[in-house]
Amino acid sequence: MEPTTGPATAGPQTPPRDVDALIVGGGPAGLMAALYLARFRRSVLLIDANQSRLAKIPRSHNYPGFAEGVTGSALLATLRDQMRRYPIDTATGLVETLVRTGDGGFEAGWPGGSARARRVLLASGVADTPPAMPHTLEALRAGTLRYCPVCDGYEVIDRAVGVIADGSAGVGEALYLRHFTPRVTVFLDEGAASLTDADRSTLSGAGIRWAREPIGSIRHGDDRITVRHGEQETVCDALYCALGLDIHASLAKRLGAETDESGYLVVDRHHATTIPGLYAAGDVAQGLNQITVAMGGAAIAASAMHLGLAAR
Ligand SMILES: Cc1cc2nc3c(=O)[nH]c(=O)nc-3n(C[C@H](O)[C@H](O)[C@H](O)COP(=O)(O)OP(=O)(O)OC[C@H]3O[C@@H](n4cnc5c(N)ncnc54)[C@H](O)[C@@H]3O)c2cc1C
Asked: Which of 47, 54, 59 to mutate to test the pocket of ligand 1 (most atoms within 8 A of CB)?
């Protein structure tokens, strides 16, 4: 695994580090918060498990400043490089425990290290549930497998698009995509049996097709993606996966933080969670799952964390 943010300096015997701000996650939200807090002259420790969704973006066309688009890996490398210019302590690893200390702060633990912090930002993102198919990474890179119509619906205008889902969740995604192309087909794990009558009438009203038989297999090749359902095959230019997300909110939930009905952390306008001193930004928090939103939320959270520390 490529080191995310520089070498981890903690060993098993290292005593807990003591910092103003601990950041869990080194995607766009975590990196942006680290930059702000370091420039506010706060001691910062950023711990990252190196699984940023940003690294999976073949080319983003809705991130400002790059008229030709930018690959996620190039953007991540640039953000990391900018962060390295500041005295930000970093470690690679998965934070497994986060508890409150008696003085109102927090203590975090990860394999090989621990730290105490007065404020914590959770920037731990989400993970997409991938479809059961070989070569998902190649399909992602080629843009035949996609997760985010908000990000790249514009790139599939008038193209043949599939939506894979395990139930009615696929209907909403298909309707969203119908705005961009009239050629949308829904494929379901259990076949059309998992669609309600209301789903069917919504889909047919919008001119969206659906496959009757359950998905048999999915394969990527020649810059297209083929879905086998029953005895038939449908070839798509792109397949959007609507199989759900794993929201990485468990550290905050174990502290009692509130989540919304979808599982995202509830935050206020300063990006504070319902636990005093614990902030959240990026995909893990309420809002649109977008790079700019992650960065904006992180800037707001970092500014509030800084002011909160000054007020102590
Ligand atoms: C295929 C694809 C295409 C996309 N295209 C676009 C696009 O064009 N435009 C756009 O705006 N957005 C796009 N997105 C969404 C964008 O990538 C995310 O919104 C963005 O990366 C969110 O940033 P984040 O910092 O919240 O989370 P992430 O970037 O996912 O970073 C979270 C980090 O936290 C780490 N982590 C999690 N738990 C822990 C823990 N307990 N301890 C330590 N580290 C932890 C993870 O390993 C990861 O490195 C796309 C996403 C995908 C998957």
From this structure: 54
Contact 281, 121 (CB under 8 A): yes
Q: What is the pLDDT of residues 205-215, one digit of tens each?
A: 999 999 999 99
Alpha carbon of 103 to ligand 1 centroid (Å) = 32
CATH for 130-241, options being 3.40.50.1360, 3.90.226.10, 1.10.4160.10, 3.50.50.60: 3.50.50.60
Residues 236-275: pLDDT tens digits? 999 999 999 999 999 999 999 999 999 999 999 999 999 9
Tokens of 98: 């986060």
- Amino acid letter for position 180: F
Specify the ligand 1 atom closest to the Cα of 4.
49
Q: How far is CA 165 from CA 49, 122, 172, in A?
A: 28, 29, 10
* Position in ligand 1 atom list of the atom nearest CA 72: 17
